[in-house]
Structure prediction request, 187 residues.
Amino acid sequence: MKKIIFLFVVLFFILNQIFLRADDAFIGFGAIKERSWGGIVRDWPSIFKMSDVVKVRGPRGMLGIRLSDNFPEVKDNTELLLHFDQVSFGRIMVDGSSYSLKYSDVYPSINIKVMGDGACAFQHIGSRIELTPREVAQFYPGKKLGSFTLSFYLYPTMLFDGETVISMLAPSIRFDNQLTGFKLYFK
Prediction:
C-alpha cells in the first residue's frame, strides 16, 4: 500500500510539472499579466493564453475572469498624457514636456476611483484644467496644424442634465493674432 501511495504522489508531481507549467510575464504600462500553459515537453509553443484579463473570486469561491483595467502607454509620439493614477490629493501631474499646467480646480483622489488607481473630480460647472502649450507643442499658437490623433478614456459621472463633459477651442489664428476656431464638446 505504501508503494502505491508513493507512486501516486510521484506521478502527481510529474504530471503537475508537465501539464500545468505556467509562465508569468508583466507587459506594458499597466503591468498586464499574461499566463500561458505548456505541453508535454517544456518550451513547447503555448496552447492557451490569457492576456489583458484578471482572475477574480466569485460566489462560493468560484474563480472568474474579467477584463483588466486598460492604461494608455507613453510612446515616442505622445505629446500629452493626463492621468490620475499616480497623484497625491489636490495635485495634477502633466506627463510630457510640451505643455505646462496653467490653472486647475479639480480634485484628484484615490478614494473616488472607478477604474485604475485614481480618479479626478470636476465638482462644479466651472471646474477645469487649463494647459499652456510650449513652443514644441502641436497646438502652439501660430503653428501649422498637421495630422494628429486625440485619444482619451473617460468614465464620466454627470451630476446635472446637459453638463459638458469635454470642451476645447480648436486653434486657428486670425490676421490680428486673435485665437479663434470652433468649439469641440459633447454633453
